[in-house]
Amino acid sequence: MSKELIRLRDVCMAFDDELVLDHLNLYFNDKEFLTLLGPSGCGKTTTLRIIGGFVTPTSGDVLFDGVRINDVPPYQRQINTVFQKYALFPHLNVYENIAFGLRMQRRPDPNDPTGKRKVKIPEEEIDQRVMEMLEVISLKGFEHRKPDALSGGQQQRVAIARALVNKPKVLLLDEPLAALDLKLRKDMQIELKRIQQQVGITFIYVTHDQEEALTMSDTIVVMDKGTIQQIGTPEDIYNEPKNAFVADFIGESNIIDGVMLQDNLVQMYGKKFPCLDGGFAENEPVDVVIRPEDIDIVPVEQGQLTGVVTSVTFKGMQYDIIVDFKGFKWLIQTTDHCPEGSRIGIKIDPDGIHVMKKSQYSGMFGDYSSFSEEYDELDDASLELDEEESGDEE
Asked: Which residues contact 277 (CB under 8 A, 6 or more apart)?
């Protein structure tokens, strides 16, 4: 069982009377890769800064190994940070950038019985630790290069090594991949996870990119407006979202109004669909999540629902198609090409349907109208026409 390392207990943070974090309760385990995920302004970076000691919470406690550290300055915490801007010293080579923090340190002289005298870290130890870090970040042989002779990904790895060489128990990473191009960002996701597993410490990572979170994390914390919406593994967050916000933020989702008739049976568009969910009241209004990849296209006569294709986008491995079901636009991801204007049937297996309780986010997400070039404000006449065309869904 993992040991708890950091706990935020009832933490609030306000700037100019605006509440940025609202009674946050969260813990981080030793040797865990945990990601704080959410849109800009959700409070994720503020949470990171509180853990690092760069800001003090308005109220609540920050505990490290069970000890309250609210008033402990950043340099006295066993925590280091890698920022979005790597802030490498341009006049120093890779070796000296990594060694910089070690050269600044002073520790008790082992030959002084009083323990008051401080000495520098010996050069032999500095060299050993720097070379170990170069090995970890796969940049051995680059120690004499200046930062401007490195790629973005290499600069990022140097920044990580500079933080790790001090042997912190926790590394904080504030959107460190944001400045990289797409391919390098994907490569660095794998590299970061490898480094975390090799050094065996806790990584706390901040991002708004759901792919980064799903790729690297042991645990994901989804945040919005200073509150936690859901905590879980990447699989839990994706397959079992707690509300419409999480379902929409993690991947693409069609989120439809439904009624839970009974356990394992939900109603949408007046039709009954078997599902795997239970524990709801009979006839309880619910939100129904259907991922675009879980929808099968079938002949119209075999469809549980039928609709009209309004937009087709080729994505290489698949087509993203928008289908109009009675004015509500669904996204379907498929390898089958369906031309615009064609009428199709769809089928959804029970395990492709996820039912959620209604929340403050209900009705805000899941309609892909804005992706359809044919979508316009519907007047009464077009609404009547749509109902006639969709008559076989009743």
From this structure: 260, 263, 264, 266, 353, 354, 355
